[in-house]
Amino acid sequence: MKSRQLKPAPTFTSIRKPSNKKRQSPFSPPKILNMKPQYKYNNREISWLHFNERLLQEAEDKQVPLLERINFLGIYSNNLDEFYRVRVASLNRMRSLRPKDRALFDFDPARLLKKINDLSNEHQERFQNIYQKLIKALEKHHIHIVNEKELSEEQGRFVTEFFHKKVRNNLFPVMLDQSPLEFPLKDKSIYLGIMMQPAEKHGKTVMALMKIPVSKIPRFIVLPSTDKRQTIIFLDDVIRYKLRDVFSVYEFETIAAYTFKITRDAELDIDSDASKSFLEIMAESLKKRSQGNPVRFVYDREMPESLLKTLTRKLHISRQDTIVAGGRYHNFKDLLNFPPIGPPGLRYSPLPPLPHPVLHQKRSIFSVIREKDVMLHFPYQSFRYIIDLLREASIDPNVRSIRMTLYRLAKDSNIINALINAARNGKSVTVFMEVQARFDEEANIQYIEMLQEEGVRIIRAIPGFKVHAKLLLIRRKEGAKSVYYANLATGNFNESTAEIYADDSLLTCNTMICEDVRKVFELFEANYKQHKFSSLIVSPFKMRDTFIKLLKNEIRNKKEGKEAWAVIKLNNITDMQIAETVYRAAEAGVKITMIVRGTSVLVPKVNKLGHNLSVFGVIDRFLEHSRVFVFANDGNPLFYISSADWMGRNFDNRIETAIPIYDPGIQAELMSMLEIQMADNCKARLVGLINANTYRSTQNKKKIRSQYEIYKLFSEKQIESQA
Fold it and tell me: What domain range includes position 231?
């Protein structure tokens, strides 16, 4: 790519040919091109497993602080559970279809499930090896994890007291010989399968199960220490240590407990009862989720065969379900809450969010945005500016209304507090809260009830569609006219995730953009009204088509000898039509660099496009979450940020926005960030079927770790602004 002075980018509509085609209804099913793939693609599920494997690489990386490596194991485990709840559960449903219905798929669900389980088992073995190495590494720092058989006399007294004070009242055994044939066990929980052997030779063996109460008691208990040695015990082993106390009414010679867990299908069965409100339907569906079909059963391989058979029979675990013989402990997602012990060097050194050079506490944010567009980059810069904007809007006498979309929120969200405060101060506040944000449904329903109690207007859900766009629109009376201010972002309005998710957030009062945001909110309120957008690209309307046209524009420019390239940064690319167009552009000579954190169906080397198509992902301290699109456009680059990945669901089943970036300074800033990531030779991995997750090398001998270099970039900008 040539280095040149960046100019303000026109919107793509300026080079789009007018169409005389009859418009579809806004929410009609999209027309899918009948395109026979001429290239090879990676399977999206297998690609996702390769993505999750990159987290294991981080856990193996000795350059990553020790407790952070343990944290990556927790993220890996949590991700895998969700993958089975959602993706594997979907494949199970496909497998159960009639043969003639399964023939509609271009793959065999049963065969794919076997590949998934085989690869997952390989990764799980690697996980266990890494975990054992990390335990030994902890011991070098005098941190020891012990089980119930390794306690000293003093530690045993502490565990006994802790058990009776904190644990025992939360234990409720289910006796397997007394319980009904069927009983539901909750997903996301861990259980002990218990076997009691009688002293008499012909006595009856007693079996039970018991939930480990990790929702009320930490999974890891730090034991008292009198020297440099620090000791941790699993809650599981605290219970094992005092198991005889729980079952003291039984006479037995031996008692043993084995951990197991069950993962269930998380798909919601949405009732179509017209007499119920959508919130009622969602609430009832959430209750049913806990009774979803099992998709995976993981158990301690030391569990006796008789106990295993009893549990699988009672829980309706069949041979078709994924049954995994694991180790002594499960639900390693709890490693995300591993105790913060040991010397400071076992964690990342702090990288506090940096102040934005033009946003000052003593100056109105509205006055800054009136002068120029501002972009925030989280977590390098602080999310508090968004809270400050809402706080200022809530007390500004000239602000008339606030409209906002909300998808995933922090616990005890300050965004919610700010909106409630605005309503209390007499502002008209309207919120679209996406109730169908997976695994956040219950929290969002609670927030809806809280907002409604304070007089905030809630826009109802749009059946069949999720609102994933991240939009804030503020109307302010200035003189005789209303002026709109907007915030459009790639990530959620969530102050907690903004500390670890790398996202971009635009603050603007650009008339075209704000008017389009107003139209999006109007779309929510009258969801059958067709709109024409002058700046935003909005799905489910023309987003796929527009990005395909942008790529084809690069193909056309390349054929005409003009400058042609594209840099695409996103989380996932699985849409086959747009993937096909990417291949065609690369084949035509357009140099395309794709920075894909997660799933990618693209396999450049298999298709012999490696010289023009580069696909890699960065996994590091922060979670790469922003979507940025830059197209050369014959030397006058077009810049967009977006809430949408290149996936069918984002194009067809969600309301998303892609936002043009007009400000030359912000364009240059985005390009600098992308160029730093393209130079990463520490944390970038190749994405694709061949040599998946190979660390990407560059010609630069200097080690470039992009997230730290980007932090340095904004730190230097802050220093320059103060000079």
Answer: 146-346
